[in-house]
């Protein structure tokens, strides 16, 4: 690589970077603001990535002065001690298309710069320079991800680089990115070249790095060695007093400090006190902030100066109070991230971590649950208090708890990344009031659910409401989309907090079921009937006849029945119902039940004395005195027990799915489709619906064929067209308001000859009238497709979810009932199969009442191709295969509708890491 060339344009006035967290004062023309991103580095700290501007000249000079001579030599292949004015001008003045430079800043300092320069129509040279003190923090990988994403959007498909042989760090960046890298050695320099199209491998590498860095960023918040409560108070009833007391009384073993600007005391409630956090004569890992909202920004700056690693902001008065609060909240998060800190809150209840050596209760709740294996994330502070009380009441042990309030920074996605690798957590509970980034949520949740059960309760599904303080994109999709998202991601979706804990009790203590067959052992006929009714409604099967014992059954009777069903290979789960007789034998039955279930790989659950927890008699104690695995949970009634078992069974089936790959589709021309969309938007800058010819062309890039329909203006023209097609045609009305009428009057089928066509024309013009515009066809002639079942496949670009594909059978009844299935691309083979089978009308596809089964594989193939199209072409904002006739062999697409429009808001889950 040669030293810098002469600048393309004259130099401009140099200016320094604004204060961290503030927007740039002057952005040049063409500045791509969408490339700005807050990012998490390898060590869990945050930084800000953005395109360079001419105003960054001073920042660049200061950065370059801190870079070692060796790093400069690796960058320019020659001694290059300082940058000239021409160098600075060239490096800071880019066109953001053929020449792009991205910088990473922490606070007011640049710590790295990466750039590409186009060298050919589809090729660009890429290079990085990273300050030595920040090498090893993953900046090279971040630059490569973001530069590749920007380059692809600018039509570049391949990166090249020149690297000195002993610059092993740079070579590693390229070779470990997941791309197929070609290397050649020439004139003492290694020439590296690779395609930058995302691959399964490169995306997998990105996800693994994202998980590690985001997990570390949360670990910095949940495992501090020292905590300062800013706004601590000795006055009873205040937030600052409650936080300090709960931290102290919760047994936090680390260093604890009280900070209050009004205090002159040396201690508050026995905790060493300081007027500001800057005055603390020790390091502080975590700051818990309880000061008025207008003072929080100053606190953040103090924490940054002190080197604090994370903030829990309990203070209210932010986005939940209106426009001024939203500005204050954006400022808080922008500042904190720019100084390397993550934020829980604002308006948060706080965090709990029961791990040995941590014992952190940085919340407003005095309840410190016992140590356990269940982690919990919620957003509502008020609900958080109730949740903690319920967990304590049920004896459900906790590993960690986060109530994120307005969720301005740290979200459920971040916590799931942490719990994925947290050995103390085996079960994850989520109470969600909004989904900030549904695509990332789905991706992260699916990865976690492959390893640990994730039980989720989403409020506001019916209204799609967003709580005050949650600054998220508002979806316009139906509520069923969230339920489908949960199923696709392997989440155990529940409807109430009671159900949330019921399922948690089961999966935290018992193994997952291996099938749907359930044995019942009961000493109550009435409760057995309730269990059977619930099983029928949940899709569970009874394994043989229930073992209904007498009301005064002895412990030996229970032992005999339990031994039999647990040994039976046809039994997958066991539900035990025990109500005590007058002559109580509770202890004996409990002992038998615990002994029979010990070591079994089948889940055993009970309605034991109608208790709602793990009764002491059925508990296997862990080293901390809590309920260990193997403990038998009890439920208030058989309905609750069976309901929880049904959820666990569905989740176990999801985990067992073997065929869960994204299929490779032949005959797909993605590049041709992208060129077509670009050319269409040149003709229609504001977007437009595609005509028949353009729809045919676009779909052909994904090997989707449409049976051609021919517009006709008169009966004579209809007859002539039908004759060309050899008759056996239909005559169809085209106006949207006529489609899918309940009486099917919009289509005249089985037209065999001229007389049939003229009769059809006469009848349909009587029904629909004559077109007001004589030059516009209101009917089309189309060859009849093989008989089959009509279905609809659609895709829509949603501002929050991105592309969403739906499936259903055609017809007014389906529309009225909302009988649709939904999934987010990319679809695995199992996703497509589930979409077809989960609609309530699916039996019509499988030979209902003697009809012929249709070609399910053809439907799934279309679902995969529509999924691929809408995933790759985000400008396709709506696509409808409005009438697909699926026969015994094959499927015929009869009618389509497509709209292409500029993408106003980029999708939130791009193939480059960023905090959203």
From TrEMBL:
Residues 47-201 form the N-acetyltransferase domain. SMART domains: CoA_binding. Residues 1-28 are annotated as: Disordered. The keyword Ligase applies. It holds the Pfam family ATP-grasp_5. GO terms for molecular function: ligase activity. Gene3D superfamilies: 3.40.630.30, ATP-grasp fold, A domain, ATP-grasp fold, B domain, NAD(P)-binding Rossmann-like Domain, Succinyl-CoA synthetase domains. InterPro entries: Acyl_CoA_acyltransferase, ATP_grasp_subdomain_1, CoA-bd, GNAT_dom, NAD(P)-bd_dom_sf, Succ_CoA_lig_flav_dom, Succinyl-CoA_synth-like. Keywords: Ligase. This is Bifunctional GNAT family N-acetyltransferase/acetate--CoA ligase family protein. It comes from Kribbella lupini.
């Amino acid at each position: 690589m040669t030293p810098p060339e002469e600048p393309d344009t004259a130099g401009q006035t140099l200016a320094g970077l604004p204060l961290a967290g503030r927007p740039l004062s002057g952005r040049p023309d063409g500045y791509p603001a969408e490339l700005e991103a807050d990012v998490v580095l390898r060590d869990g700290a945050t930084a800000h990535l953005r395109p360079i501007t001419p105003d960054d000249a001073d920042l660049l000079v200061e950065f370059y002065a801190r870079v070692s001579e060796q790093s400069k030599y690796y960058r320019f292949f020659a001694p290059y001690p300082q940058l000239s004015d021409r160098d600075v001008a060239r490096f800071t003045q880019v066109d953001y298309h053929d020449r792009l430079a991205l910088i990473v800043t922490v606070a007011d300092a640049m710590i790295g710069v990466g750039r590409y320069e186009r060298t050919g129509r589809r090729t660009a040279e890429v290079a990085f320079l990273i300050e030595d003190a920040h090498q090893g923090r993953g900046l090279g990988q971040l630059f490569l991800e973001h530069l590749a994403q920007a380059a692809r959007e600018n039509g570049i498909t391949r990166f090249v680089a020149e690297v000195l042989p002993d610059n092993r760090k740079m070579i590693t960046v390229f070779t470990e990115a997941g791309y197929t890298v070609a290397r050649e050695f020439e004139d003492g320099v290694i020439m590296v070249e690779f395609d930058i199209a995302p691959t399964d491998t490169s995306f997998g590498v990105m996800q693994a790095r994202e998980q590690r860095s985001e997990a570390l960023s949360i670990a910095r918040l949940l495992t501090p060695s020292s905590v300062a409560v800013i706004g601590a108070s000795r006055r009873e009833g205040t937030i600052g007093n409650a936080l300090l007391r709960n931290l102290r009384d919760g047994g936090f073993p680390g260093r604890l400090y009280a900070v209050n600007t009004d205090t002159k005391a040396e201690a508050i409630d026995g905790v060493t006190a300081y007027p500001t956090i800057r005055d603390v004569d020790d390091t502080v890992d975590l700051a818990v902030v309880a000061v008025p909202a207008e003072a929080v920004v100053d606190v953040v700056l103090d924490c940054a100066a002190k080197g604090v690693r994370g903030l829990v902001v309990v203070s209210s008065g932010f986005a939940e109070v209106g426009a001024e609060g939203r500005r204050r909240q954006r400022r808080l998060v922008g500042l904190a991230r720019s100084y390397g800190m993550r934020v829980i809150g604002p308006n948060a209840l706080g965090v709990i971590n029961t791990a040995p050596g941590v014992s952190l209760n940085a919340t407003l709740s005095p309840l410190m649950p016992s140590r356990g294996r269940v982690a919990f994330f919620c957003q509502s502070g008020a609900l958080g208090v109730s949740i903690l009380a319920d967990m304590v009441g049920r004896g459900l042990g906790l590993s960690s708890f986060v109530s994120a309030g307005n969720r301005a920074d740290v979200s459920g996605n971040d916590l799931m990344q942490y719990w994925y690798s947290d050995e103390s957590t085996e079960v994850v509970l989520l109470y969600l009031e909004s989904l900030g980034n549904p695509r990332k949520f789905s991706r992260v949740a699916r990865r976690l659910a492959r390893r640990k059960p994730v039980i989720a309760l989403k409020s506001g599904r019916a209204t799609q409401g967003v709580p005050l303080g949650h600054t998220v994109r508002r979806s316009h999709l139906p509520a069923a989309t969230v339920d489908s998202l949960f199923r696709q991601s392997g989440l155990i979706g529940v409807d109430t907090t009671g159900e949330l804990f019921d399922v948690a009790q089961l999966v935290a203590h018992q193994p997952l079921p291996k099938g749907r067959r359930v044995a019942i052992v009961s000493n109550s006929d009435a409760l057995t009937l309730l269990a059977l009714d619930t099983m029928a409604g949940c899709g569970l099967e009874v394994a043989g006849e229930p073992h209904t014992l007498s009301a005064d059954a002895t412990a030996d009777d229970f032992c005999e029945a339990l031994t039999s069903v647990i040994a039976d290979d046809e039994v997958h789960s066991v539900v035990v119902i025990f109500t005590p007789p007058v002559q109580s034998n509770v202890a004996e039955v409990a002992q038998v039940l615990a002994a029979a279930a010990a070591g079994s790989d089948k889940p055993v659950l009970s309605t034991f004395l109608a208790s709602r927890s793990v009764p002491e008699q059925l508990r296997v104690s862990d080293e901390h005195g809590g309920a260990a695995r193997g403990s038998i949970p009890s439920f208030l009634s058989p309905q609750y027990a069976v309901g929880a078992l049904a959820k666990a069974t569905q989740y176990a089936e999801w985990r067992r799915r073997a065929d869960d790959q994204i299929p490779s589709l032949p005959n797909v021309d993605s590049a041709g489709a992208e060129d077509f969309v670009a050319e269409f938007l040149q003709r229609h800058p504001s977007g437009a619906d595609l005509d028949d010819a353009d729809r045919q062309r676009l779909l052909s890039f994904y090997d989707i064929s449409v049976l051609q329909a021919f517009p006709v203006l008169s009966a004579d023209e209809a007859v002539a067209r039908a004759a060309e097609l050899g008759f056996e045609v239909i005559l169809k009305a085209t106006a949207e308001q006529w489609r899918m009428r309940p009486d099917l009057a919009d289509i005249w089928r089985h037209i065999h000859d001229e007389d049939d066509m003229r009769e059809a024309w006469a009848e349909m013009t009587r029904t629909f009238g004559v077109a007001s515009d004589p030059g516009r066809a209101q009917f089309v002639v189309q060859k009849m497709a093989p008989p089959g079942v009509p279905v609809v496949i659609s895709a829509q670009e949603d501002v929050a979810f991105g592309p969403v594909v739906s499936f259903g059978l055609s017809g007014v009844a389906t529309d009225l009932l909302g009988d649709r299935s939904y999934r987010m691309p990319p679809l695995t083979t199992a996703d497509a199969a589930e979409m077809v089978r989960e609609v309530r009308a699916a039996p019509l596809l499988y030979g209902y009442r003697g009809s012929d089964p249709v070609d399910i594989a053809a439907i799934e193939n279309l679902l995969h191709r529509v999924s691929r199209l809408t995933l790759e072409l985000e400008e396709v904002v709506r696509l409808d295969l409005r009438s697909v006739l699926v026969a015994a062999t094959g499927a015929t697409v009869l009618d389509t509708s497509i709209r292409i429009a500029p993408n106003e808001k980029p999708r939130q889950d791009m193939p480059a890491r960023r905090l959203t």
